[in-house]
Write a structure and sequence with these properties.
- By secondary structure, the chain is α/β, with parallel strands linked by helices.
- Helix content is 25%, strand content 15%.
- The protein is built from nine helices and 14 strands.
- The chain has helices spanning 17-43, 149-155, 167-181, 241-244, 286-304, 354-364, 377-381, 400-404, 420-433; strands at residues 96-100, 135-139, 160-165, 189-194, 197-202, 207-213, 234-235, 252-255, 267-270, 281-284, 311-315, 372-374, 387-389, 411-415.
- The strands form four sheets. A seven-stranded mixed beta sheet has the order 4-5-6-3-8-11-12, with helices on both faces. Strands 7-9-10 form a three-stranded mixed beta sheet. A two-stranded antiparallel ribbon has the order 1-2.
- Helix 3 packs across helix 9 and helix 5 (286-304) packs parallel to helix 6.
- The chain is globular.
- This is Trichome birefringence-like N-terminal domain-containing protein.
């Protein structure tokens, strides 16, 4: 502001310069105030500093009966619970090829994860080769989202994630624990087993990742988590209540069931209870019985899972490699001593049932609540090299005949860790967070 000037003598009739200066200053301040008020008023109608509005997770609504259950994101582009983005349009992460990549795989070392069962620790049991750990799955025309343990644990904060199924689902469960546990302080994590239920706790996230043993999903005579090798497998129809009471309250459910259905014979289905003195058992075609149980699971999901805050997945069949002639090797071998994947992209082993795969698609497509199908079958068909073979804990002493012929006792069903099942979890990660 200008300093006021004294009035000059001899000009008593002129206005005081002080008053003139004061009036001009006041007028200038008034003009600037009006101008800035208009700008400020305009700012109130714009995002502050162009900041986007806070993100609010969009919840997918239940679909009408008969809609595609494995399409997790609605056509409108809404994100289901836990999702943080969308997969690239037209990207089928189940179709692709294996790329050898020592720099990127494995995600962890076998000795770094104390949670791997001795049935899966191939290096500790003398496997001489390591190449099976270095293969990375590359989808055709797109890429898998990079697994981010920090993101996943944050999204699981205060949540319960539950795997339900057989030993192959347990292998995937342990793989996920191995992928996550490294960033959790030693004092803030634990794993405990209570009969059929195993619980890994990430205490600083108030989160649990759990596995529940139920090889048929429905009640059966193979439900003991330790002693379950029975020659005559019997499933108690659609009775899932015994198991399902442990599923309630889960925020994320990951089901599987397949291996135990592959008896080569009709399935025995019990109409009553295992406690009944007179047992009513009928035989059903495997596909019919399999569909019956999966429909019971779908009904339970529809009645007990809320699509506004939970997600449900089903992992498809895990293949076996028990006969080398199936992939063009006439040596009369199996998975034993196999060190490279199958290169024929159209390969589908005869031990993997396309009929049961069809049933999976038919049943889950009718669910009123989205059930994401994690298709691990085709990519696993190529991995004849990734099985535990003979490099695992043997529960029974080997006979001289077995020792003389290692392929005779090679395990061509289960998989070494680290290894193939880490890729299964990469697919699950993509389906969960980027559907």
């Amino acid at each position: 502001m200008m300093k006021p000037q004294h009035s000059m003598s001899g000009h008593g009739g002129r206005r005081s310069p002080f008053l003139t200066s004061y009036a001009l200053t006041l007028a200038f301040i008034t003009f600037v105030s009006v101008l800035y008020f208009k700008d400020f008023s305009s700012m109130l109608h714009q995002p502050f500093l162009s900041r986007p509005p806070p993100h609010r997770r969009q919840i997918s609504r239940p679909r009408p009966h008969g809609s595609r259950g494995n399409n997790q994101a609605a056509v409108s582009g809404e994100l289901p619970p836990f999702a943080v983005g969308h997969a690239p349009a037209g990207c089928d992460i189940g179709q692709g090829e294996w790329v050898y990549d020592e720099a990127a795989r494995p995600w962890y070392a076998e000795e770094e994860c104390p949670y791997i069962q001795p049935q899966l620790t191939c290096q500790a049991h003398g496997r001489p080769d390591t190449a099976y750990r270095h293969w990375r799955w590359q989808p055709r025309g797109c890429s898998l989202q990079s697994f981010n343990a920090t993101l996943m644990l944050e999204m699981l904060r205060d949540k319960r994630m539950l795997f339900v199924g057989d030993s192959l689902n347990r292998g995937q469960y342990v793989s996920l624990v191995c992928l996550l546990h490294r960033i959790i302080p030693e004092s803030s994590k634990s794993m405990e087993t209570f009969d059929s239920l195993t619980i890994f706790r990430a205490k600083n996230y108030n989160a649990t990742i759990e596995f529940y043993w139920a090889p048929f999903l429905a009640e059966s005579n193979s439900d003991d988590a330790v002693v379950h090798r029975v020659a005559d497998r019997i499933v108690r129809g659609t009775a899932i209540e015994k198991h399902a009471r442990f599923w309630k309250g889960a925020d994320i459910l990951v089901f599987n069931t397949y291996l135990w259905w592959m008896t080569g014979q009709n399935m025995k289905i019990m109409q009553g209870s295992f406690e009944d003195k007179s047992k009513d058992i009928v035989e059903m075609e495997t596909e019919e019985a399999y569909g019956m149980v999966l429909n019971a699971v779908v009904k339970w999901v529809e009645n007990n899972m809320n699509p506004a805050n939970s997600r449900v997945f089903f992992v498809t069949m895990s293949p076996t490699h028990t006969r080398s002639k199936d992939w063009g090797d006439d040596s009369d071998g199996n998975c034993y001593n196999q060190t490279t994947p199958i290169r024929e992209l159209s390969y589908w082993g005869p031990g993997t049932s396309k009929g049961l795969m069809r049933v999976i698609g038919e049943v889950f497509s009718t669910s009123k609540i989205p059930i994401g199908v994690v298709n691990i079958t085709q990519l696993s068909e190529y991995r004849k090299d990734a099985h535990t073979q003979i490099y695992k804990k043997q529960w029974n002493p080997l006979t001289p005949e077995q020792i003389a012929n290692p392929k005779s006792y090679a395990d061509c069903t289960h998989w070494c860790l680290p290894g193939l099942q880490d890729t299964w979890n990469e697919l699950l990660y993509s389906k969960l967070f980027f559907p």
